[in-house]
Amino acid sequence: RSSSKLVTPLGCLVSRQKHTLPDLPYDYAALEPHINAEIMQLHHSKHHATYVNNLNIAEEKYKEALAKGDVTTQVSLQPALKFNGGGHINHTIFWTNLSPNGGGEPKGELMEAIKRDFGSFANFKEKLTAVSVGVQGSGWGWLGYNKEQGRLQIAACANQDPLQGTTGLIPLLGIDVWEHAYYLQYKNVRPDYLKAIWNVINWENVSSRYAICKK
């Protein structure tokens, strides 16, 4: 596993460095029994790594098309950039949203905002779970921040569509509901996976993201 953060915004294609797979901040088995080691290893080292690799390939082709003024190719590459770029962005957030020391409830400003915008933590948890269960096929359930309105919002995104790039909401907490995130352990029972994942949510990370986007 190679270590890196997102090195450059998507679209900064001049003299850019390649995207690399970030290290997990914990071992593959650290989230057991809620998410087992086999799922984490495949999810990180295979699925996320594939998004990174394909994103680099698509960006290189886009750079070449840009240099040639080949607009047709630039347009044709947009789905690959969106899918693989979104996959990289989403998973980079997802790994930090989880922790072996997670679970429970958030504290401080984030908790106050959740109570303000959803009535209670229980209501928020129920709504995000329901939205995530209801994603048709593959996708993500999200808690995001609406900067214009100064409030929290729940949203679902299909496939690997990135939250901010498609809705404008700043991502705080993402729940991956692609089958590769849970099938080996929970089979086709997505609600059981969603019940378990609350035990490993890293509220310190989510709270930090909320504090940053409020500035």
From TrEMBL:
Q: Does the keyword Metal-binding apply?
A: yes
Q: Where does Mn(2+) bind?
A: 43, 91, 176, 180
Indicate the segments forming the Manganese/iron superoxide dismutase N-terminal domain, all copies. 18-99
> Per the record, what are the reactions this protein catalyses?
2 superoxide + 2 H(+) = H2O2 + O2
Manganese/iron superoxide dismutase C-terminal domain: from which residue to which, for each copy? 106-209
Keyword annotations of the record: Manganese, Metal-binding, Mitochondrion, Nitration, Oxidoreductase
Q: Which GO terms describe its molecular function?
A: manganese ion binding; superoxide dismutase activity
Q: Which cofactor does it need?
A: Mn(2+)
What PROSITE patterns does the record tag this protein with?
Answer: SOD_MN
UniProt similarity note: Belongs to the iron/manganese superoxide dismutase family.
Q: How does it assemble?
A: Homotetramer.
Described by its record, this protein's role is as follows: Destroys radicals which are normally produced within the cells and which are toxic to biological systems.
| Entry protein name | Superoxide dismutase
Q: Which organism is it from?
A: Helopsaltes ochotensis
- Organism taxonomic ancestry: Eukaryota, Metazoa, Chordata, Craniata, Vertebrata
